[in-house]
Design goal:
This protein is an alpha/beta fold. It has two domains: 221 residues, Rossmann fold (3-Layer(aba) Sandwich); 172 residues, 3-Layer(aba) Sandwich (Rossmann fold). It contains 16 helices and 14 strands. It has an eight-stranded mixed beta sheet, sandwiched between helices. Strands 11-10-9-12-13-14 form a six-stranded parallel beta sheet, sandwiched between helices. Helix 2 runs parallel beside helix 3 and helix 3 packs parallel to helix 5.
């Protein structure tokens, strides 16, 4: 099978969670012998064209024009991606399917679909409505409309949780049967060969302190402010802890100031951006990983923590609530409830049997439910279903009849 994937991020360009998902899915499909072409945005110090293990990566420069705003830049990107993709498709010959990842590549995806008559599927990783708990301004409305457009143009819509399936059906009025749940995954051997580095750990906490770890974008929807609100209760019960918060985002200064104003700044360490190498090392040094999201379509960071063999505490929201079974393979707190979050963390700190049990069960779940072999096969099954429907559709036959009319002159 020959597949064209479109995504505005691909490693080493990592904006959010899409990058790792696209990478891991594409690599698994390529490893199985399929020809996968990723068309993505160029980033400094990256190659414009390379064979990255099992996939071909095409990185496209946006136009050398100063965009007035983010939406204008997206349009520049789509024009550049379209220009490149047309040349590529003319050289590649037949492509079986186009797979678009999120709204940012909607325009180029639609153009290629209609010009080359290639069936389009999309993955909606999150929605503007969900991220902002509603639509509140014109930019959000525009993005929401483009997201709807992508789901409308796609033969099938993929999402990563049943929470997202319900959200897409409700917000965009997409037929329920058109939406397919295929979860994100993680390699169970992601942390193989990485041992706990005690010298590295000293950069973040004292030897006697347990590390409570968060990683993600520092934005409202991730709920880091709820974690900070939970800290005084945790310290009252278990003082020898350090809260390490990794990531960057617009809330960094607010969160740091909040911790200082609560007189707990000495117990919170903000690392800022952290490289993949150091992130893996930090996971192995952490004692508990916490993801207190207010909105989370899936939550791949929870899978990373499970694969690192540390217990997770999440909130009962979105995909996180589907990944974790409370007190079995993780702990679940009420959404937006600092008291509930503190109780979950304290329970793990005080009960070694619970701590060990959730770690063991989480690792079993990673291997049996969230492995890329299974996810790759589910994706291929969907691709084949789409291709089979496409071959028997009116769309392809109407196009053929129109071509005959052109040749025959009537």
């Amino acid at each position: 099978m020959k597949v064209l994937m479109l995504s505005w991020e691909y490693p080493p360009r990592i904006i959010g969670g899409i990058s790792r998902v696209v990478h891991d899915l594409a690599q698994k499909l390529g490893q199985q012998g399929h020809e996968i072409h990723i068309i993505t945005c160029w980033d400094p110090n990256t190659k414009e064209l390379e064979k990255d293990k099992y996939v071909f990566v095409h990185r496209v420069h946006t136009y050398d024009l100063k965009a007035n705003n983010f939406i204008d830049w997206i349009m520049h990107l789509n024009f550049a991606l379209t220009e490149y993709s047309v040349k590529l498709l003319n050289n590649l010959g037949n492509v079986d399917i186009i797979h678009a990842h999120d709204w940012i590549v909607t325009y180029v995806s639609r153009v290629l679909k209609h010009v080359y008559k290639i069936p389009l599927v999309c993955t909606i990783h999150a929605t503007e409505h969900g991220r902002n708990q509603g639509i509140h301004n014109e930019m959000q409305r525009y993005i929401n409309d483009v997201e709807w457009w992508l789901t409308y143009e796609s033969w099938k819509v993929i999402c990563n949780s049943y929470y997202m399936k319900n959200e897409i059906e409700t917000i965009f009025q997409v037929p329920y049967s058109k939406i397919h749940v295929i979860p994100n995954g993680i390699s169970a051997d992601k942390f193989n060969g990485i041992e706990k580095d005690y010298e590295f750990r000293k950069n973040f906490a004292a030897d006697n302190e347990k590390i409570i770890f968060f990683v993600g974008r520092l934005v409202q929807e991730k709920g880091i402010h709820i974690l900070i609100d939970a800290i005084p209760k945790i310290l009252a019960h278990y003082y020898d802890v350090k809260f390490v918060i990794s990531g960057k985002g617009p809330q960094l200064d607010f969160l740091r100031e909040k911790a200082n104003n609560m007189n707990i700044g000495h117990k919170v360490y903000f690392t800022g951006y952290i490289s993949d190498e150091n992130l893996k090392k930090l996971y192995k040094c952490a004692d508990i990983a916490v993801f207190p999201s207010l909105y989370e379509p899936f939550g791949i960071v929870a899978l990373e923590a499970m694969a690192a063999n540390i217990p997770v505490v999440v909130t009962e929201t979105g995909g996180l609530g589907e990944i974790v079974e409370h007190a079995y393979d993780g702990m679940k707190a009420y959404v937006g409830n600092a008291n509930s979050l503190a109780d979950c963390i304290i329970a793990l700190l005080y009960h070694p049997d619970l701590y060990d049990r959730v770690k063991t069960n989480a690792m079993h779940k990673i291997k049996n439910h969230y492995n890329w072999d299974l996810i790759g096969n589910q994706t291929l099954t969907l691709y084949n279903e789409v291709i089979n429907e496409y071959k028997h559709s009116r769309w392809i036959h109407e196009d053929f009849k129109n071509m005959l009319k052109g040749f025959l002159g009537n």
